[in-house]
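Let us work through a complete example step by step.
Step 1: write down the sequence.
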Amino acid sequence: MSRREPRLEQYLGLSPSGFHRLAYAEWGAEANARIVILAHGYSGQARDFDDLARSLAGERRVVCPDIAGRGDSAWLGGPFQYHFPQFLADLNALVARLGAREVDWVGTSMGGLLGMLLAGQPNSPIRRLVMNDVGAFLPMPALREIARGLDAPTQFASLEAVEAHLRKTREGWGPLTAAQWRAMARHNSRTEGAGFRLHYDPAIAKSMGAMPMVPGLFFWDAWQRVQCPVLLLRGEDSEVLPRMVAESMLLRHPNARLEEVPDCGHAPSLCAKAHIARVRGFLDGPLHWGHEDTPPLAARSAR
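Step 2: predict the structure and record it as tokens.
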């Protein structure tokens, strides 16, 4: 297998409908004890992280799971089986399969929330946590934005049509090259008949549509239990992680820092070289710092 391509692995999860197949892409030496898990967003999949994974794989074993219903993982029994307790159980099974005593975790949107929930558990194996454009409170407009990203045609005539759709729904990811958009279209679609469909179970969109009308989702209790170092990445134009929420999170966690990413909304792609440098700098940096070590917000927003 080329170093430019991952190993594609599988394991089993368990839901009320029985066992289900779960997939993940793995980069770097399997014997490497330094492991980082890259967890995608609600409509994402493992290969969204290819550029970041390649960059990190020289010094780490990098594992990118397809959460149930996405990518190459099996679909579950219906929309109401797609919920956080199921995802957390599946991801815990993945950590156990890797034989890891500790892992670093980089999560975009939903993947960041799942990392936070795992990091807040007693004796958590998570050593460092990157939460990419998600926080301890998600306002209702943010949830609607995520739901709109799931609204898609059932079939596309070509990969070019898939790419056009992704360019619209992932506009907030920031600048990407033409090659990155093409790769994203390829990995985020599956052939179906004479055309293409998106990679995820359509029932996932229904699960979002069934969400009750509430002011938002609160995760403050979980956030206050997190003890490991945390890097909060925020797209400077993001509505999913309002600046006020991010700043409030810092007040509750002395070992967290905030960096804003320019030219992005929800969520920074982590494909651009500048994004990758931010993640690498955190993963290779100290395990402890005070807020006095965090530069002013204007500096944190620098390119």
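Step 3: interpret the result. The first strand starts at residue 7 and ends at 15.
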